[in-house]
Amino acid sequence: MIKTTIYLSKTLKKDKLLTNSSSIYLVNGGDGLQKTYLGLIMSEEEVAKGSGEAALHIAFEKLSSITPNVIQQNLVISELEALKTAKLNKSEYLIYSRTEKWTDPLGINCVDIYSDEASVVLSLYSTQNDKLLNSTRLASSNCPHKLNGIPLTTGSPESLYENLFAKWVTNTFIQK
What we know:
6-stranded mixed beta sheet
């Protein structure tokens, strides 16, 4: 059972949509948390190291196939710093990618309460006036289908996020 959610704070107006000639500064907002189970009952969350960079890489791959004007910042910096740097780079837009959840259990351990999970908040800014144009939470969780308790495919937060980000791009870009 796939649980997918895309929460848009507001829909972009047609004149605010990005194009294939838009220049973008894409920034890593940090790693998210992952759910872990230490036994049958006890669960906790810990930092999912590298999750912010993984989400950023997926976004960069997709965006660079649309526009050649994408600059990627792997280091974690604040939104204020990112806006300043985006202006220095003469980027029209800033996409600040902050990972919230990034859980990847072994396929056989994947159950409804402990599943592959990706949740990333994207903040889209116009650098011309430092205005937040849109804030979106992309979230999905899922387990691969099983046959006699054996997963038929591998699952991952990366594959979930690739689908979510593709939908976000469809709502955010207009092809010229």
